[in-house]
From TrEMBL, chain A:
PANTHER family: GLYCOLATE OXIDASE SUBUNIT GLCD
Domain FAD linked oxidase N-terminal: 48-186
Coiled coil: none
Species name: Limihaloglobus sulfuriphilus
EC number: 1.-.-.-
Sequence ranges assigned to domain FAD-binding oxidoreductase/transferase type 4 C-terminal in this UniProt record: 224-469
Name the UniProt record assigns to this protein: Putative FAD-linked oxidoreductase
Broadest EC class assigned to this enzyme: oxidoreductase
TrEMBL record, chain B:
Organism, as annotated: Limihaloglobus sulfuriphilus
Single Gene Ontology MF annotation: electron transfer activity
Cofactor annotation: FAD
Family: Belongs to the ETF alpha-subunit/FixB family.
Protein name: Electron transfer flavoprotein large subunit
From TrEMBL, chain C:
InterPro entries given in the database record: ET-Flavoprotein_bsu_CS, ETF_a/b_N, ETF_b, ETF_beta_N, Rossmann-like_a/b/a_fold
Entry keyword Transport: yes
Domain of life: Bacteria
Family according to the record: Belongs to the ETF beta-subunit/FixA family.
Name of the featured protein: Protein FixA
Database matches in SMART domains: ETF
Alphabetized UniProt keyword annotations: Electron transport, Transport
Length: 473, 337, 262
């Protein structure tokens, strides 16, 4: 696909649509932040020719029409906290930044629904809802920075998916600007709706390739007032992982989340934090979270789960039922990334997902893989839903050359192992352009062709976020 | 209420170390002077220590003090709460001070609450403002609370003396400007004051060039420094500025610097002339310990960092580039005399 | 032999927000936690008791809800807990608080050491520890970063402005500790269950033989006259250099600023 450059005339037209102050053009310093997301590696970055910050659906619509007329690509962007390169303009053109569309439009208490614009920070939604005793259950780990629009586009998962599911479960309505500029409502304030194809499910997780959301209707639930985290130390990864199916199938309790951290991940994070949790003796840690509306229920649930861990080989179970201790426990989990950044910036963050029952095998295989290649693969993630954030970290002594030479081999091998266990390439980060070349390892040609034909029918000129999920034709 | 009238004069608790008056004593004179003028009364000092010469004491007099009550005894050389409190009790019964102010130092914050209970009166900690209420003539004591979110003004209506500790560095020290006309009155020590279970075994200096609490300039390092190996860069900047080095809780928790460096709610509170935060995000716990600094400078790569909200000057940028450049600029430009 | 730890339940001040209109603190939705600096006292008490076979007892003065703070202390390893709660205690300043606590300590009896956190993060006075010592007429050692017990006395390291003092002290005594002393342990499942089932007695003013008018707002020598919002009036200049030359210029401007303040 060939695209045209953004000429000063096009830039002027863009300024006419959104206002001069909201177009960045010909200013490399200010454009640079829009050339990458949270992936540290430069090779996934690409500079936009211009950045446009619209305020309304109508403005987005006019931008899309202009893009079709002059054939330049449009890459939508939320907070830029993605991990798949989804918001990176790999074919140039413009980045459409949704930061100005950041209003909470309507709280419908009777229906327990909230209408928001895409640029609202996910965390702000819950801060807003708290006094009303309501809760939006989407919970990506980057909650404090990411935008709800990006969450919907990526169908973000996160730490609470075991109990609450992923973002898609809470999206009821989408006002969407289609690639050709049409503004269409999908769904609305309806809990059940079978009018034709399920467009909401298609649009959710479409990684900004099928449309740009301008209004989002979210389903709310009553705020769970009590939450307890258990930090369970196990002797080995296997023992830790084996507890997961027992919890899910054997207790009648659905925990909010089950997080897993293997030995290397715990060790580095604890050493980095100077944390005195006796991680030396432990081969793996599991954080089990339960929440609910009554203190008594939450208490009895965590006791049951904690005892079950003790009976199944846990060395110790710590209980955090207040902010002080909860923060200490989660700090370990949240700082794994930072701890490894200090060791080496040469990393590849993977997001594989396997059937929950295959977790133990996968962890074992990853540890062998790390040994074989002489790299570190700290393994952590959402054990309850089979989603593992395996992060391949270079031996700090390696040269860049060596790293770039070996990494593709490791990835190939890693994906092969994942696929053999019936797993998939990404649980929640998305394909973007980072993982698209590995798609054929997981899906058939026929499957890919269906995706491509959907794209083609909605965006025949390949204007909207081209080169993501699969190569533009 | 008549009994309250027996109490008069503003008193400060002067502090000494090895026979030399400490800076806080002169800061307290500045505070006390204002109060004594408002109240139209004398300004007096009490001082406990070992060998203190009259010459040294007259340094207080040259700052305008009217009276010094001093107890000199080898056994008062180092601070020990019981003997100190007993002497203070004697001073209180003898002179009946209307107001006693002390520094919120490790000594003041230990002695004053002990002595206040013994004297059966109230005490306000860590004041940043003191004034005489023109209506009642009582002492209004203002202090930050709830992590610096609010300022509370407190009075002691029916008890005397009115006691308060004052944050070090929250005011300028008084300068000797006149000939001393100060009266020196010795409190003669009595043996029973020195019964105590506490034995002084020794002192180990922290080895830091400049003490954090006493420094006018402080360079504070936050998590942005990434690891302990990067600290030399910070020390070089501190050295160029003749500043002390402080740290946020994150840095101390990670073991990169020791606890005595920690500034904030669970560390120490500082009020320097110049604060430079490097890679400091500005969590509320930290701000509580430094927001009264005269000039606040922040260097951080995150433009959203809270610290920029209270800074006088900020650079949004990579500290690993900015800090060495700044050190060099200072060394070549001669910022510090 | 008892080691007694007075603790305070405080609002989690990290999440305290201010009502910009009224200048008051919004406490709604703010969790009540054990004063973070008391956790170090709790941990020190547990470790010392382990080394000398003493019993540890946590005390807290506050409303009925403060029992939660005591249960948290027990779940960390404290043996017993007593709640000091009475309507007439409300509004106590540090004078009255240390009085009530010292009366409770006397009631427990056979105390060897009383360990306090350096201060509470809400009131931020650090006066209660020395106050208790004064009421009990025993010595107090503050800002301790190390404590060990040997043969009826304790040896400590005291963190002061320019270094560390080494001291020894006879017992009983009051010790206040700083964060450097020990990393607090996390509550365990076993500890939580013990805490849940533990009977925590409530001692009232009457039980302690305290006259209601001698404590609380009435009995406190100090009074709050007014509450203000601190004024922060800084004229911030923010430089956002995005290139090497601009960084150099920003650094130069900063050095200039430093020269002004020096």
């Amino acid at each position: 696909m060939r695209y045209n450059r953004i000429t000063p005339e096009i830039a002027a037209s863009l300024s006419e649509i959104v206002g001069e102050n909201f177009v960045i053009y010909n200013d490399p310093e200010r454009l640079e932040p829009y050339s990458h997301d949270e992936i540290p590696e430069k090779k996934y970055a690409a500079m936009p020719e211009a950045v446009v910050r619209p305020r309304t659906a109508d403005e987005i619509s006019r931008i899309m029409k202009l893009a079709n007329e002059f054939r330049f690509p449009v890459t939508p962007r939320g907070a830029g906290s993605g991990l798949s390169g989804g918001a990176v303009p790999i074919h140039g053109g413009i980045v459409l930044h949704c930061d100005r569309m950041n209003e909470i439009l309507e709280l419908d208490k009777e229906n327990m629904m909230l209408t928001v614009e895409p640029g609202v920070v996910a965390n702000d939604i819950n801060e807003f809802l708290k006094p009303h005793g309501l809760f939006y259950a989407g919970y990506p780990m980057s909650m404090e920075t990411c935008y709800i629009g990006g969450n919907v586009a990526e169908n973000a998962g996160g730490g609470k998916a075991v109990k609450y599911g992923v973002t898609g479960r809470y999206v009821l309505g989408l006002e969407t600007v289609m690639p050709n500029g049409d503004i269409v409502w999908f769904g609305g304030k309806l809990i059940k709706d079978v009018t034709g194809y399920n467009m909401i499910q298609l649009m959710t997780g479409s990684e900004g390739t099928l449309g740009i959301f301008s209004k989002i209707v979210l389903k709310l639930i009553p705020l769970p007032r009590y939450q307890v985290d258990l930090l369970c130390l196990f002797k080995s990864s296997q023992e830790a992982i084996n507890i997961v199916p027992r919890i899910i199938t054997g207790t009648g309790i659905i925990p909010t989340g089950i997080e897993f951290m293997d030995r290397t991940a715990c060790r580095e994070a604890c050493e980095y934090l100077n944390e005195s949790i006796p991680y030396q003796d432990s081969g793996a840690m599991v954080i089990i979270t339960v929440d609910g509306a009554s203190r008594e229920n939450v208490e009895s649930e965590y006791e049951t789960l904690g005892e079950m861990c003790m009976e199944n080989g846990a060395i110790e179970v710590y209980v955090a039922d207040n902010v002080t201790t909860s923060e200490r426990i989660w700090k370990v989990r949240r700082n794994i990334g930072e701890a490894y950044n200090v060791i080496s910036r040469r990393q590849s963050g993977e997001d594989i997902v396997v059937p929950p029952a295959a977790m133990a095998q996968m962890v074992e295989k990853l540890s062998q893989l790390a040994q074989n290649f002489g790299v570190m693969i700290p393994c952590f993630g959402h054990a309850g839903d089979g989603n593992l954030h395996a992060r391949i970290v270079s031996d700090p002594k390696w040269s860049d050359e060596k790293w770039h030479q070996v990494l593709p081999e490791i990835l190939e091998r890693l994906y092969k192992l994942t696929s053999e266990l019936g797993g998939s390439i990404s649980g929640e980060h998305g394909i973007g352009h980072k993982r698209k070349n590995y798609m054929p390892m997981f899906v058939s040609d026929e499957y890919l062709n269906i995706l491509k034909s959907i794209k083609k029918s909605l965006d025949p000129n390949f204007i909207l976020n081209p080169g993501k999920i699969f190569d533009s034709l | 209420m008549d009994k309250l009238l027996e109490y008069k004069d503003i008193w400060i608790l002067a502090q000494q170390k090895e026979g030399r008056l400490e800076r806080i004593s002169f800061e307290l004179i500045t505070r006390g002077r204002e109060l004594a003028d408002q109240r139209g009364c004398r300004l007096c000092a009490m001082l406990f220590g070992g060998d203190i010469t009259d010459d040294e004491l007259h340094r207080l007099g040259r700052c305008g003090l009217d009276l010094a009550a001093v107890c000199r005894d080898e056994r008062l050389k180092d601070f020990n709460v019981e003997p100190y409190a007993r002497v203070m009790d004697v001073v209180i019964s003898k002179y009946r001070p209307e107001v006693i102010i002390a520094g919120a130092t490790s000594t003041g914050r230990t002695l004053m609450p002990y002595a206040a209970i013994k004297a059966n009166t109230g005490l306000t900690a860590d004041c940043t403002g003191l004034a005489i209420d023109p209506e009642s003539g009582g002492l209004h004591q203002t202090r930050p609370a709830i992590g610096g979110n609010i300022m509370a003004t407190i009075k002691t209506p029916a008890h005397r003396p009115q006691m308060a500790t004052v944050r070090p560095h929250s005011t300028k020290p008084a300068q000797p400007a006149q000939k001393s006309k100060m009266l020196i009155e010795d409190i003669l020590p009595e043996d029973q004051w020195f019964t105590t279970g506490v034995e002084y075994l020794g002192f180990e200096s922290s080895g830091d060039q400049v003490s954090l609490a006493d420094s006018d300039r402080v360079v504070v390092v936050g998590r942005g420094i990434k690891k302990a190996d990067n600290l030399p860069m910070i020390y070089e900047l501190a050295d160029a500025l003749d500043a002390a080095v402080g740290a946020t809780r994150d840095v101390v928790d990670r073991g990169w610097l020791s606890y005595p460096h920690q500034i904030g709610l669970s560390g120490i509170t500082i009020s320097p002339k110049l604060y430079i935060g490097i890679g400091v995000s500005g969590a509320i716990q930290h701000l509580a310990g430094m927001q009264t600094a005269e000039t606040i400078i922040a260097i951080n790569s995150d433009p959203e960092a809270q610290i920029f909200k209270i800074a006088d000057f900020g650079i949004v940028g990579d500290l690993f580039e900015v800090v060495p450049a700044l050190t060099q600029q200072i060394r070549s430009g001669g910022v510090v005399d | 032999m008892n080691i007694i730890v007075p603790i305070k339940q405080v609002p989690d001040i990290r999440n305290v927000r201010m009502d910009e209109k009224t200048g008051t603190v919004i406490r709604e939705g703010v969790e009540a936690i054990v004063n973070p600096l008391d956790l170090y006292a709790i941990e020190t008490a547990i470790r010392l008791a382990g080394s000398c076979g003493a019993k540890t007892i946590a005390l807290s003065m506050g409303p009925a809800k403060a029992a939660d703070a005591l249960r948290e202390a027990v779940s960390m390893g404290i043996d017993e807990a007593v709640l000091l709660s009475d309507k007439c205690f409300a509004g106590s300043d540090t004078w009255a608080t240390s009085y009530v606590l010292s009366e409770a300590v006397k009631r427990i009896g056979s105390y060897t050491i009383i360990i306090c956190g350096e201060r509470a993060v809400d009131g931020d006075t650090g006066q209660v520890g020395p106050g208790i010592a004064a009421w009990l007429d025993i010595p107090v050692l503050t800002y301790l970063s190390k404590v060990s017990i040997n043969e009826g006395s304790c040896t400590v390291r005291r963190l002061i402005e320019d270094g560390y003092e080494s001291l020894s002290c006879s017992m009983p005594c009051v010790l206040t500790v700083v964060k450097e002393i020990a990393e607090p342990g996390l509550p365990t499942l076993r500890g939580k269950k013990r805490a849940k089932n533990l009977d925590i007695p409530t001692w009232t003013a009457e039980y302690l033989g305290i006259k209601p008018e001698s404590v609380g707002l009435k009995g406190s020598p100090t009074r709050v006259v007014k509450i203000d919002r601190p004024k922060v009036s800084r004229q911030c200049r923010i430089e956002k250099p995005r290139s090497e030359t601009k960084t150099a210029a920003a650094v130069k401007a900063l050095a200039e600023k430093l020269r002004e303040t020096a």
